[in-house]
Amino acid sequence: MRGASITRTVFRVEVVQLLRDRRAFFAAVLLPVFLYPLMLSGSDLLKNAAVGSLEERELTVLVDSGDAPPELATRLLDAVGGPATLIVNGDASSLTNQPAASFPETHRRQIEDAWRELVGDTAQAVLILEGGATATGQLRATIWYERKDESSRTLSGRLRERLQSLAEIMTVERRVDLLGADPGAALALEVHDQATAEDKGAANLARFLPIMLVFLLLGGGSFAALSIFAGEREAGTLETLLVSPANKSAVVLGKFGAVLLTGLACLVSNILGLYLAAQLGWEGLSGGGSGGISLERLAGAFVFVPACILVCAILCLACGRARSFREGQHKLLPLMLALAVPNLVVLAPGLEHNYLLALVPLTGAALSLRDALLGELTLGVTLAMILSHLAWSAFAVRQLAGLLDAERVLIGAASAEEAGNRRLASRHAQAYGFGAVLLMLGLASRLQAQDMLNGLLTTLWGMMLPLALVCLWHANRRFGPARPLDFIRSRPRIIDLFLAILIAPGLAWVIEYLVRAQEFVLPLPEAVTQNPALAQFFQSTSLGTLLFAMAVSPGIVEELLFRGAILGTLARDKKPVRAVVISSLFFSAAHASLHRLMPTFLIGSLLGTITLRSGSLWPAVVLHVTYNSWVMLLGTERLPEVLVTGWGQHLVWLALPSLFLLLRPRKPRSAN
Amino acid sequence: MTLDTNTNAPAIHAEALTKIFSDPERGKVAAVQDLDLACNYGEVMGLLGPNGAGKTTTLRMLSTILAPTRGRGTVAGADITNDPIGVRKRIGFLSGTTGLYPRLTAEEVLQYFGRLHGMDEDTLGQRLEVVVKAFDLKDFLSGRCESLSTGQKQRVSIARAVIHDPRVLILDEPTTGLDLLAASDMIRFVESRREEGRCVLFSTHILSEAERLCDRIAIVHAGRVLAVGTQEELREDTGEKWLEDVFRAFVARADHSPEQAADQPQANITGGEPHK
Predict the structure, then answer these.
(1) Where do the structural domains in chain A lie, given as residue ranges?
(2) Long-range contacts made by residues A334-339, C-beta under 8 angstroms, separation at least 24?
(3) A186 falls in which pLDDT band (50, 70, 90)?
(4) Residue among A272, A320, A262 at smallest CA distance from A19
(5) Contact B117/A246, CB-based, under 8 Å?
(6) What are the tens digits of pLDDT across the range A35-65?
(7) Nearest beta carbon to residue B100 from set A235, A244, A416
(8) Average pLDDT of the residues in B157-171
(9) Beta strand pairing status for B199-204 and B168-172?
(10) Which sign, positive or negative, has the C-alpha torsion B229, B231, B232, B237?
């Protein structure tokens, strides 16, 4: 019970502080209430004003009825006709001084051009009729308009609509004429929308509310989370809190409760704001009808409460580690984008909610919210969604308890600047990794498709090497003189280089079997297995060039980028395993091939581990070069026979002890 | 919880207390090494040393914010490793960088910490009256902390640290950032605690402060205690008249001792000092 009373105490104090914080109150409560009425009625107002001004304008359509039969032309003109339509019957001769019918084709074009010039000036659209002189001759109607002009666009739309319905009627008439059937037998089409105005409003709402809610929850809750967690550090009260005998989990729970209360207040304000907007006659919500969406339907939005809990917990996790308001705010935008993505699912047309989707954090809640608004909520799926979201939230809240871990809080603060530098550098390194992947996916594969050899060399030396150098320069500038993990500068042990060579045949063997296994799941397409262009390339290129382009160059450049620059920087900030995994993900993604994803990831991880363990980049370079050479020579059947079938095949077995020796734990070596 | 301040057991007892930080860049750094310390009730003990000597880390270990890497310690009868909650209940902790919640009133801050210490409402009300009177908080009790002057804030901070009537007070450079007047308030407060038979352990790098307040002084340098004793004892030991020279003499002695020099921990990179 002590824990509960501590939680209550902390909760009460935090809520009192939040209520006294005008920013938090404004962002969480006032903003959502007034946002919708203001924003949505504002947009309605603008729209109505625009439509109104459009309707007031006199719209003019010029009609050149050409040589069309008079009765047909009359009908057409009747169909087109409207109060704002000025009909200039097509005496094209006024433009060219020649009777319309006798125009040769070139002249017709000229006339058309002359007509078209009038669009946007004298008239908003021009309608030109051609043919239809004989009973079987087809009448062709051409509409010219300008899309950039709003009134021209509206007018052309209206014209098109009317002419299309006229064309339909004429088709039926023609058919009746030919078959002699009763006109009454023709199809009479009627379309009725059964949805009520409320349904339509709800459907509109369901399309954007989940995303909007996440944004507003994060925006509204951020002030609370920041002042509750980061504020404690800024005010210098954290140490005293840590030294109080209160149970830290209970304290964190109380703080989370206050953020959650803000989140819930934000949710309620949202619903209230939407109701207000609907009552004020916002068109999007009322579905074009009157009265708007009912409060009952809107109350369905409370199904989003579990997601609200989860969002608040994530928000606390993000803001809780921030040392200041400013740092917390920097995290907010990426968080908003990341948390909005799972909600985009509501935009998928016709996606049915199911038990599996219900388990996905935020996605499940967003779909439930959509269904609730549409009045189609199912009990089982909703329950699954609620339970799974509560479980996710519990997991996140458990992580929160670590936020008040004294050692991390205090020691972290002491070397905060260094840690900040490290983190920043590691983020930059990841950005460079992304850049490499994008370059490879976008540009490099195209270059290589055009010209294999030059494309490859350009990619490696022209794109990847500069990227690696810039990344290294950037990281070094940030780290200053302290660079104990500089793999590139540290001299390798000769034995390590030798061991790296011995690993290559075994690695090639293992990877080959893994790729074969992968084929059960992901069969290689023929374009890969039987590529005549590639075969031709291997045939026509000299061995030396091949080795340089496909083994030496990638070995050096890729290692410099992915191990030297990216892993080297990441390893200063992250745990070794994580650094290796992240750098290998970039390495494998940069190979721009789904089939090579798994093998390159494994090879990347191995190379990364070797680099970290040996403290030098060069064993990895040697292994990469040897591996690539071995695989290339084996694939093009240029490997000496003795290595394939003779004693060489036993080289495979050397890999394991070599790897063991290379990866053995050892004392870290200094940079020099 | 009974207040047994009259027992013979020392209020603070530390034995071979060691804290080693592992820094990803520098490897392992010993901020405090094999520190022994004993401090009695009714005594004011000062930890004297330059920045980075390990004072803050020592006080943080004794107030259980940091867990020691090695060694043992008891504070007010509770073991710092096995019974940290027991320690926290019995100590008051205050540092020079301590702040207050800007949007709470002074009274709310005091109540908040009283409740966090598990005090029931009656006891809290009584204690509140006592500290309000003792520190003369009446005039600004209902004012928000953000609107208080530095001196007023300091008085609230002190009241906050003793709201639960702790037997042991641990003060980490308590006069940092204080003007002369507020600092003298603090000094008077420490003296009053001694008269009440409480134990006060505080750290400082200001010699005059140590000279005026301390019954005994522990000279800390590079994570070790070089000497402990009353001011007279320390003067006699070194033959120096001024405390400053006493301090220098001990540091010089430690630096030249071959046994110490061999495993001298690196000073100034404790990572335990708060950033200022």
Answers:
(1) 2-41+196-413, 56-184, 417-662
(2) A335/A218, A336/A214, A336/A215, A336/A218, A336/A219, A339/A214, A339/A218, A339/A311, A339/A314
(3) low
(4) A262
(5) yes
(6) 877 877 677 777 777 777 666 666 677 777 6
(7) A235
(8) 91
(9) parallel
(10) positive
Residue from B25, B29, B97 whose CB has the most chain A CBs within 10 Å, to mutate? B25
CATH superfamily for domain B12-96+167-262? P-loop containing nucleotide triphosphate hydrolases (3.40.50.300)
The residue of B83, B85, B97, B116 whose CB has the most chain A CBs within 10 angstroms, and thus the best one to mutate to test that interface, is B116
> What is the pLDDT, as a whole number, of residue A90?
47
Interface of B with A (CB under 8 A): 21, 23-25, 60, 63-67, 85, 88-89, 91, 93-95, 97-104, 108, 112-113, 115-118, 144, 160-161, 271-275
A289/A148: higher pLDDT:
A148
- Chain A nearest C-alpha distance from B274 (Å): 6
Map out the domains of chain B as residue ranges: 12-96+167-262
| Nearest CA-CA partner of A658 in A501, A487, A491 | A501
What is the per-residue pLDDT for A670?
Answer: 44
Pairing of strands B44-48, B199-204: parallel
Is residue B170 within 8 Å of B202, Cβ to Cβ? yes
For A543-595, what is each residue's pLDDT tens digit?
888 889 889 999 999 999 999 888 888 887 788 888 999 999 999 988 877 78
pLDDT tens, residue by residue, B200-219: 998 888 888 888 888 999 99
Q: Do A243 and B21 touch (CB under 8 A)?
A: no
The ipTM estimated for the assembled molecules is 0.84
Q: Identify residues of A whose CB sits under 8 angstroms from chain B CBs.
A: 2, 5-6, 9-10, 13, 16-17, 20-21, 235-237, 239-246, 251, 406-407, 410-411, 413-416, 418, 422, 482, 484, 572
User: Which of chain B's residues have a Cβ under 8 Å away from the Cβ of A21?
Assistant: 103
* The pair of three-digit structure tokens given for residue A602, joined into one six-digit string: 């494994």
B120 CB neighbours in chain A (<8 A) are none
